[in-house]
Predict the structure.
Amino acid sequence: MTARKSRSDRRIDLIEAARRAIVRHGIDGVHLAHVAEEAGLTSGAVLYHYPDLSELLVEAHHASVERFYEHRMRQISTISDPARKLVTTIRSGLPTGPLDPDVRLLNELGGAAGRNRIYGLLLTTLFDRQVSMYQAILDTGQALGVFDLTTESLTISRNLVALEDAYGYRITARHPLIGPEEAAELILDYARTATGCDLSH
């Protein structure tokens, strides 16, 4: 006999189903029936847990935020060397490949951000949090004499996040010459110039 899932487990399943539905149908094209189909449930069962579909779609976005901010912060929290911390942060901010579901989801939200104020706010918040993450690394590295920054840390940080976004899109768009490793090296090339550090870690 299969044990019934808890309400929290069911909501987690629905968030994952919503993420798959967004990637498959697009943020503007996804409907309640699509999420229900992905979850293997009726539309009524989805509404029981999420009476407002837009709330579920926002929750699906938060799962990607977890990966590109909270998870990265936990990953670098155990690294003391600023140069190694910077390299790790750059590499962990890129898609694993063209089918990376988190990045494809963020691309969908990015396309809708101009039409939906909530999506725009969520993506702006993620961008600003990632910038602050990079800025803390750069400021620490400069204070320790590891980095010799060519300009303000805020400017460099914004450029690093923008490069992540740009190359991430190219990877998911299946650019034939830019995969995760090539993109990482291109961003690191900018970071080496901006920090005066070889970043060979």
